[in-house]
Amino acid sequence: MEEQVKGAHAVAALCKSYAEKLGRSGDVFTKIAEQSLKIAEKRGYTDNFLEYHKDVSELQAYLDRRLLKEHGSISKIYDGWCYDFYIGLKNKSRNN
Questions:
Q1: 86: exposed, middle or buried (C-beta count within 10 Å: 0-12, 13-18, 19+)?
Q2: Which of 38, 49, 58, 89 maximizes the CB count within 10 A of its CB?
Q3: Smallest Cα–Cα separation from 59: which of 11, 1, 2?
Q4: What is the mean pLDDT of residues 83-88?
């Protein structure tokens, strides 16, 4: 569960940064990142916050490199991959 929370936090932060670079609103991804952090805090994953932040930042940097290599542009990542991430979370929350 810890890796899923860190992953959601990293993806949300990355998609928020892409939205900002594209001049779009990243508010929905800000909310996802905030929720991920709240879950991490509640479960004690942030007891060593520096370690938690390092892990999330490293995952975010890895995803950024891999996605840019795979998709070729921030716009394609945002419009496809980030959108799919958001829809997946939205559908999962409806089913729970």
A1: middle
A2: 89
A3: 11
A4: 93
**pLDDT tens across 22-79, in order?**
999 999 999 999 999 999 999 999 999 999 999 999 999 999 999 999 999 999 999 9
Which of these, 32, 65, 67, 47, lies nearest to 2 by C-alpha position?
47
pLDDT of residue 90: 83
User: Tokens in use for 74?
Assistant: 């921030």
Q: Which two tokens stand for residue 56?
A: 């999330």
Tokens of 1: 């569960």
| Residues sharing a CB contact under 8 Å with residue 28, sequence separation 6 or more, in sequence order | 86
DSSP 14-59: HHHHHHHHTT---HHHHHHHHHHHHHHHHTTTTTTHHHHHHHHHHH
Residue 96 in this model has a pLDDT that exceeds 70: no
Non-local (6+) Cβ contacts of 39 within 8 A are: 5
